[in-house]
Amino acid sequence: MPAYIIVEIEITDPVGYEEYKKRAGATVAQHGGQYIVRGGACETLEGDWKPKRIVVLQFENMERAKAWLNCPEYAEPRKMRHRTAKTRMILVEGL
Questions:
Q1: Total domain count, the chain
Q2: pTM, rounded to two decimals
Q3: pLDDT averaged over the chain?
Q4: Helical segments of 1-95, H only
Q5: What separation in angstroms does the CA of 74 have from each of 40, 52, 91, 94?
Q6: Which pLDDT tens digit goes with each residue over 39-78?
Q7: What is the bridge-based pairing of β-strands 34-38 and 53-59?
Q8: Distance separating alpha carbons of residues 24 and 33, to the nearest angstrom
């Protein structure tokens, strides 16, 4: 069953975050993931949620998604993300 990592991001260091994006993309592909949404226009339709940036990644299943998040290849880019942005991240099963 496919799984999706959904990330709400508020970039605090735009230059550093650009470097993070360069490094993170290859690790996603190495673990069989793909970007479904990577930034782009975002509009709130209901409620008071006002995200600055949304990223959605798709993986084969929840185990593969968690394996990517915790893999050695992503360890340094993950630290970069924590330094350059405030993030909230969830993992959900798809259909």
A1: 1
A2: 0.93
A3: 97
A4: 14-30, 62-69, 72-84
A5: 23, 23, 17, 23
A6: 999 999 999 999 999 999 999 999 999 999 999 999 999 9
A7: antiparallel
A8: 11
